Amino acid sequence: SWTMLNIVEDAVEAVRRQVGPNGRAICGLSGGVDSAVAAAMVQRAIGDRLTCVFVDHGLLRKGEAEQVEKDFVAATGVDLHVVDAAERFLSALAGVTDPEEKRKIIGREFIRVFEEAQREIMAEGPVEFLVQGTLYPDVVESGGGTGTANIKSHHNVGGLPEDMKFELVEPLRTLFKDEVRQAGEELGLPPAMVWRQPFPGPGLGIRIVGEVTKERLDILREADAIAREELSRAGLDREIWQCPVVLLADVRSVGVQGDERTYGHPVVLRPVSSEDAMTADWSRVPYDVLARISTRITNEVREVNRVVLDLTSKPPATIEWE
Ligand code: XMP
């Protein structure tokens, strides 16, 4: 729409003024819509003086890393610095089962990897600006102050340490989520990114109950992809807030798949409806959709022999299992 076009043009112009004719900026991409839209706006404003950093921690869902590295780059022409850190995150997570410990490790490794990338980028010349996808509700929640690089650090992998002395560029500061999505469409971003449902920064790392290993991530990625595909096909993407798929990696139960007795893992489907994730209800997904998801997962993912549905509202349960 023309109003959204104006909003985007104004934001791009404001970034151009703030960064000036020679300033350089970096922006961390998470795969989510906020950082993608913020980066696309800044790219429009200053072109290759923006470098985006994508730390692939190996905990994203199927196709999401490719979405950033291929589709997003093709759509925006952004200068992208990719760090494939999957092995590093896996070794750091080896043997860890406590969810808070996992979150700490993922956050810590993320900052270290980001800092290394940033040092490499700054070896080519100084960088004064850090782009963040802070939205209006985040600004309000944090008291409206400026220059706070850590607004969401407790919740987001993108939180950066205080000692990075950057001036913040926050082109989404006046926008609500639905406006950010509209801006993303206006900017021609991949629809899968623009319409992505909420997904935690620590990713699949907190959707495996138990130790995170490469094999378990692969199992969960396949099961999750099937659930997402079937929910989308049924036209439920807008109705459902999000649907975590959780691997109970330390639980096994007996099953029969083909002619064989199996001793496999259950996965949990956690479809919820919500306005803001503070409270949620379990979604009444039609039985035939649930049946297709269950049949496909147990047919296509060898290690999974049971699919169960979470029927709990929030509170008392949270949306994620962890
Ligand atoms: P819970 O599980 O607390 O989740 O009911 C509430 C919402 O927050 C999302 N979530 C996160 N989002 N970084 C994020 O950006 C995180 O570390 C994180 N942990 C949970 C969750 O998916 C749900 O939408």
From TrEMBL:
Q: In which pathway does it act?
A: Purine metabolism; GMP biosynthesis; GMP from XMP (L-Gln route): step 1/1
Q: Per its record, what are the GO molecular function terms?
A: ATP binding; GMP synthase activity
Instruction: Show where the GMPS ATP-PPase domain sits.
Output: 2-196
Q: Where does ATP bind?
A: S30, G31, G32, V33, D34, S35, A36
First-tier enzyme category under EC: ligase
Reaction(s) the record says it catalyses: XMP + L-glutamine + ATP + H2O = GMP + L-glutamate + AMP + diphosphate + 2 H(+)
The entry's keywords: ATP-binding, Glutamine amidotransferase, GMP biosynthesis, Ligase, Nucleotide-binding, Purine biosynthesis
Give the EC number(s) listed in the UniProt record.
6.3.5.2
Q: Provide a GO CC annotation, any one.
A: cytosol
Coiled-coil residue windows: none
Role summary: Catalyzes the synthesis of GMP from XMP.
Q: How does it assemble?
A: Homodimer.
Q: What is this protein called?
A: GMP synthase [glutamine-hydrolyzing]
